[in-house]
Amino acid sequence: MRVLWLTVPLFSLLVAACAEHSGTTTEVALAPPPPVSEHQRAETALGKFLASRSIREMPAHRDASADLDGDGIDDLLMLLDDQNWCDAGGCTLLVFRGGADGYKLVGESASTRAPIAVADRSNRGWRDLLVTVGGDGESGVVAMEFDGTRYPADPTMGALLDPSRLVSAKPLIIAPGAAVAAH
């Protein structure tokens, strides 16, 4: 009986102590997530684009960034120069708007070729993209103008530009095998 007499008060103290601490929370300081590189942001944007079309294979691609809309945040151009994304006229060019939470697709254009440049001229707040179109026969450069929502899906419908207009353009994606001039 004496053991029971000591056990009940000790058990009561233990339960009371546990109940007293059960309402408190312990805060744990979490380290901030590691910074996401631009390469990772670009790969994530491409992955989301492909997933929206139920495509699992990551195509070969070349990327470039520039502030196309003048908001101080670089936007992303991605040329999918992969056999599954190219035809006789060229390859698919994706244009993404940059933001704090990643990239949002604002243009998908077929039949484009490098070199691809950004012009000084703007339309509806976005700078024109100068892309090469055509094949072995007749080829040239056209200006892809932003229409307020996106860049054109088929740049081959545009008129070829006079070569004198190309002087003010900044190259972003160069043609394979082309040398980049040092500035």
What does the model show?
The protein has helices at about 1-20, 40-50; strands at about 60-65, 75-80, 85, 90-100, 100-125, 125-135, 140-145, 170-175. By secondary structure, the protein is of the alpha+beta class. Strands 1, 2, 3, 4, 5, 6, 7 and 8 form an 8-stranded antiparallel beta sheet that branches. The longest helix has 21 residues, at about 1-20. The radius of gyration is 29 Å and the shape is globular. The termini are far apart.
As a percent range, the share of helical residues equals 10-25%
**Mean pLDDT figure:** 82
* Biggest sheet statistics: 8 strands, antiparallel
Q: Give me the count of strands.
A: 8
Class per helix and strand makeup: alpha+beta
What is the rounded distance between the termini? Answer: 95 Å
Would you list the SSEs in sequence order as H and E?
A: HHEEEEEEEE
CA radius of gyration is 29 Å
Query: Strand-residue fraction?
Result: 25-35%
Quick take:
The protein is of the alpha+beta class and 183 residues long. The protein contains 2 helices and 8 strands.
